[in-house]
Amino acid sequence: MRKMILGSLVVLTFGALLSAGCAKKDVVKTEEPISAAQSAPAPAPVQTQQQARPEAPAAQQPITETTPSREQPVAQETPKDAGKAQEVQAELQKVYFNFDSSDLSEEARASLSKNAEYLSRQAGTKVRIEGNCDERGSDDYNMALGERRAKSAKDYLVNLGIASDRLSTISYGEEKPADPGHDEAAWAKNRRDEFVIVK
């Protein structure tokens, strides 16, 4: 008796699935050309939906295909390399400047001499010198002043024997303040060159 009931349930379930499958086939058949005798308004929404479907995936594909984090392999540092870079970074001293000046003070020259000694022992290490300014002055003026400050430090390091191809410069002007304050103490911290290890 139980076998008959289970058999009937299986047959009914199969029949329901089959009829649901047939309903899907009817929707697909509506794509056939419409004859003049048929009314145009009924199939029009089906055609519009079907035409819109291929466009949606096409719009999404470039987003996933051009994501750099998935496409391009990223070279990973070993813990030893990362530790060495942090050690070198910690040894490089910042250089500070007077207001509206790119001239190196005695203190700045002393810091650059220590940086040169350390870099001479780290053959092959490349450094980017980042020039920064305080918030006073126009954006254009501060970008130019930051570049002059970075170039002053680079020239001094080259004179101390560091190869110029190991040094690059960039100016951030007033864009990357070390101290967000608006007084002389904050401005003095922002008029600086920073030395960043690059690969």
TrEMBL record:
GO terms for cellular component: cell outer membrane. It is found in: Cell outer membrane. It comes from the Bacteria. The keyword Coiled coil does not apply. Keywords: Cell cycle, Cell division, Cell outer membrane, Lipoprotein, Membrane, Palmitate, Signal. Residues 1-19 form the signal peptide. Residues 33-62 have a biased composition (Low complexity). It is a lipid-anchor. GO terms for biological process: cell division. Residues 84-199 form the OmpA-like domain. Residues 33-87 are annotated as: Disordered. Gene3D superfamilies: OmpA-like domain (3.30.1330.60). NCBIfam families: Pal_lipo. Belongs to the Pal lipoprotein family. This is Peptidoglycan-associated lipoprotein. It comes from Citrifermentans bemidjiense (strain ATCC BAA-1014 / DSM 16622 / JCM 12645 / Bem) (Geobacter bemidjiensis). The gene is pal.
